[in-house]
């Protein structure tokens, strides 16, 4: 049910695509995440949106994050910024990343400050042109910032001041990034109010909750009140790896099972992405 299906990952091209898009996927395309309970493909469109993934250790967050990064790697119209406290999850994609940050708080802050400065420049451009969001013709490339594990940088490594700066930068990038073509994909195994305060959670248009220990952790990802209406990630059986509840802006949580790419498939995607990006 959740095995890799290239037809889902590489949807048929629509007629009328521009020549550059023949070279690869686009970050404007829907991204294949997996299948719902009726076996229907579930996609998310991340351009102008962000996604938050949360749940217990081992529930399937990194696999889902990997699916998104794999799609983005094959898009020639987005730069990847990978921040991976665990190092090994996103490392295979380092060859196609603009920046790869492992468990290094100083580097993480340097990269985020640079991103914030880029954001300022994009907003200046928007102000000058009188528009509200960046479009491809503006000449700014989309960026996808993938963070595997928020808590690592906000409570584990670095000094209190550095953790606070990390939080402030992420909040700003998530809040202003959408319109400026900067997408944040963040995962956390600690869905608690100190790691994901409501004010931050509400900035994520998509939220994906994998198995959680308590209703309140599930609500921290999906939104307050969903557990009391019967939508809780506590119900997901511990052996149901990769099963989660996806909530899209304003919608009801939808149960899905994510697709699973094995290490070899990730390696093949990286090889293809290196080639595509060189040719672009
Ligand atoms: N969709 C899936 N299909 C099949 N197996 C899966 C799926 N998702 C996750 N798994 C299995 O569960 C394991 C743990 O998944 P993953 O590493 O994504 O968890 P995690 O939530 O990121 O854990 P942690 O928070 O500890 O990093 C994977 O190595 C894989 O074996």
From TrEMBL:
<keyword id="KW-0067">ATP-binding</keyword>
<feature type="domain" description="FtsK">
    <location>
        <begin position="28"/>
        <end position="219"/>
    </location>
</feature>
<keyword id="KW-0547">Nucleotide-binding</keyword>
<dbReference type="InterPro" id="IPR027417">
    <property type="entry name" value="P-loop_NTPase"/>
</dbReference>
<dbReference type="GO" id="GO:0003677">
    <property type="term" value="F:DNA binding"/>
</dbReference>
<dbReference type="InterPro" id="IPR050206">
    <property type="entry name" value="FtsK/SpoIIIE/SftA"/>
</dbReference>
<dbReference type="Pfam" id="PF01580">
    <property type="entry name" value="FtsK_SpoIIIE"/>
</dbReference>
<protein>
    <submittedName>
        <fullName>S-DNA-T family DNA segregation ATPase FtsK/SpoIIIE</fullName>
    </submittedName>
</protein>
<dbReference type="InterPro" id="IPR002543">
    <property type="entry name" value="FtsK_dom"/>
</dbReference>
<dbReference type="GO" id="GO:0005524">
    <property type="term" value="F:ATP binding"/>
</dbReference>
<feature type="binding site">
    <location>
        <begin position="55"/>
        <end position="62"/>
    </location>
    <ligand>
        <name>ATP</name>
    </ligand>
</feature>
């Amino acid at each position: 049910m959740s095995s890799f299906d290239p037809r889902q990952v590489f949807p048929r091209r629509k007629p009328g695509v521009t020549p550059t898009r023949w070279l690869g996927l686009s970050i404007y395309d829907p991204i294949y995440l997996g299948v719902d309970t009726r076996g229907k493909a579930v996609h998310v469109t991340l351009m102008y949106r962000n996604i938050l993934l949360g749940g217990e250790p081992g529930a399937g967050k990194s696999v889902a994050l990997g699916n998104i990064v794999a799609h983005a790697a094959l898009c020639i119209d987005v730069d990847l910024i990978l921040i991976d406290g665990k190092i090994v999850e996103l490392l295979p994609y380092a060859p196609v990343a603009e920046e790869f940050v492992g468990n290094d708080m100083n580097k993480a802050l340097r990269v985020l400050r640079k991103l914030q400065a880029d954001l300022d420049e994009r907003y200046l451009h928007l102000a000058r042109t009188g528009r509200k969001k960046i479009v491809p013709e503006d000449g700014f490339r989309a960026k996808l910032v993938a963070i595997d594990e928020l808590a690592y940088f906000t409570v584990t490594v670095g000094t209190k001041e550095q953790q606070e700066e990390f939080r402030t930068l992420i909040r700003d990038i998530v809040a202003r990034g959408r319109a400026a073509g900067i997408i944040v994909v963040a995962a956390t195994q600690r869905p608690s109010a100190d790691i994901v305060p409501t004010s931050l959670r509400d900035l994520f248009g998509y939220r994906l909750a994998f198995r959680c220990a308590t209703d309140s952790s599930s609500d921290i990802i999906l939104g307050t009140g969903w557990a009391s209406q019967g939508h809780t990630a506590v119900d997901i059986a511990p052996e149901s790896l990769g099963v989660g509840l996806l909530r899209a802006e304003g919608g009801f949580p939808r149960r899905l099972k994510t697709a699973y790419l094995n290490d070899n498939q990730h390696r093949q995607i990286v090889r293809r992405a290196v080639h595509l990006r060189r040719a672009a």
